[in-house]
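re: that complex we talked abt at group meeting.

here r the seqs, copy pasted straight from the sheet so there may be weird spacing, ignore it
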Amino acid sequence: MWEYAPAPESRDIANLKPNYRMFVDGKFVEGSGEPLKTINPATEEVLAEVSTASESDVDSAVKAARRAYDRVWSKMPGSERAKYIYRIARQIQERGRELAVLESLDNGKPIKESRDVDVPTAASHFFYHAGWADKLGYAGHGPDPKPLGVAGQVIPWNFPLLMAAWKIAPALACGNTVVLKPAETTPLTALVLADIIQQCDLPPGVVNIIPGAGDVGAALVGHTDVNKVAFTGSTDVGKVIQGQLAGTSKKLTLELGGKAANIVFDDAPLDQAVEGIVNGIFFNQGHVCCAGSRLLVQESIADELIEKLHARVSTLRVGDPLDKNTDVGAINSREQLTKIKELTESGEAEGATRWTSECSLPDKGFFFAPTVFSGVSQAMRIAREEIFGPVLSVLTFRTPEEAVAKANNTPYGLSAGVWTDKGSRILWMAQRLRAGVVWSNTFNRFDPTAPFGGYQESGFGREGGRTGLEAYLDV
Amino acid sequence: MAAPTTLPSALADAVRDESSLRRFLHGLPGVDQVGVEQRAAGLGTRSIKKASKLYAIDLAISMVDLTTLEGADTHGKVRSLAAKAKRPDPERPGVPKVAAVCVYPDMVKTAADDLVGTGINVASVATAFPSGRSTMDIKLADTRFAVEQGAAEVDMVIDRGAFLSGRYGQVFEEIVKIKQACGDAHLKVILETGELVTYDNVRRASWLALLAGGDFIKTSTGKVQPAATLPVTHVMLQAVRDWKDQTGELRGVKPAGGIRTTKDAIKYLVAVHEVAGPEWLDPNLFRFGASTLLNDLLMQRRTQLDGHYSGPDYVTVD
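got the structure back, here u go
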């Protein structure tokens, strides 16, 4: 047997500090909230102590953002704003290894993903939007579209740096200023991004980053001087925010949960479909709102496909996120791990057939072996509820109509995948699937030029592309 | 058409006649170009270090078909290649020997005489290598001559013209007949994937060669660009894996041409390990058709053991 020797990336590259502070008005300052301890989910050790914002800190951050908006940023020509945004993009690339290692430490995702996906895509979002800053008049939103003002943004823990980039880059390009709250369990890379922003000499107050838990987020989105709220996270919290904002003039975009269908027809390129299924659900431990968590496979090839899928999933290497050969890292928190376990137990109790990879798991940390449920029906919880973990539910269908009906039979509608060799069928399906993104013969591909967003309980508004600019312009 | 071995009924049906064969090959699942290239690039980022790297280097050395296929080949050149095959790194007796020496048919006897009793096979290209453009009689005579001269392995080329114009039955018959002419010698079937161009064609040609009894499927002659690539090798590894699932038989894969560095070789071994499976990590089931690769493997082997880089002057040129 050929065992790969451990190939860990050095954690020293992360430049981990014992304390991190919030970033307000161009300076790193102590928050007056209760400091939080962020842990490495792969080892459960404390990584650093992070100061959090109190309600008055939220207020001073919003005030700083307002001043920066009124005095500098809204008046600055787009071509000048672009220079700052390009500078941020280049600094992210420059410090790419540091950011990647830090992300893997704080989040638990494998280094190959933080290195090859999160960090480069974050940089590309800044590059892409920098290009728009002086061309907004050509974006299809009128000849001289105006910014909205102060954007309050709340982001999740699954792609901490990348989500910060998704939120900050278009806001800045359109001339808004930002107060951003990173997730409680993963604040570190956003604060390194703050350091980058400081070094790029952005005018004080244009970007403010205030760590904290849900109460800080609530204070931010509820603040009367915020003009625009952007939230990525759970559907439950999204509903609360929408209720909170009803009747105000604040503009809102929500990017929430999903239960995406990955639909495989009998003429699909099977080996690549297997890769796409694996990438769809085991990428980032399944902590992906657009994860392909429901596999809909045509009944005539179901047995063959499931057999191939089991064989392929058995080769996934689960373990130390810093090891360059790790495919599946750690679950982000104990709370999330408990939720995944609870839902998988319900799958067994409701009669689905569970298959779990026999990979070895580390003794410490939050890990969950890749799991595939077959014989799942639409009525089971594992087919309806978002598990947000490395758990796939396999359902079958007989006709394209049935595939569409099952795929759309969910309150969500963020993404979908279609696997077939027939181009006409791809288009036919894409027209009928209620999902913001439809991938054909691939899955989980992200690009700043492509708008991303959902239907129904997956939220509204688009991020990325020309369409995504609309969320940050007064149109 | 005569199936060379006893096949499970589904596959026996596939080779019943030309139209069944065509239906079978065109009924294979397609290969998505973007997907297979993405997967190959992704697996290429595996980081193989320390003991696992040394293991991979020794394994790769033992899988090399040390090759010289030049118009300028002489008996002297072949003899020195045979010497290199026996003792790849004369100063390091622990280095494994290579799997085979691969030459043109008229050089087989020279190589075979030098390699008697070493356990190193002589492989010979045949069937109007590299183009395959000749009559069946000549291809058969070419094969028989190579085997008589002492070749234990025959690397045949398929008729790409026949394949591309859809005459699958003809290609099948050729492989079957060459296999018969080989007797006990192992048959490697060169698909020349650089001329088949699409991955769908590579998959069909792989299955065609397996159905016709090829012991190995081999990517290239080395005379056409592109020669071996990682994604093409992925498709061929999937074919032998699926063949095993359906028949229980293990068949081999040989990428040839263009693999020059240890780093490349390790990427191929990772693909063998994770696409086909660990049991293919065996010189009987995976080979590298290469000439310059061997010296890079030897230099990297020294680096692993000595802790510092060696240089090209410390390994023998042939």
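couple things i noticed - The mean pLDDT of chain A is 97. The first helix of chain A runs from residue 55 to 73.
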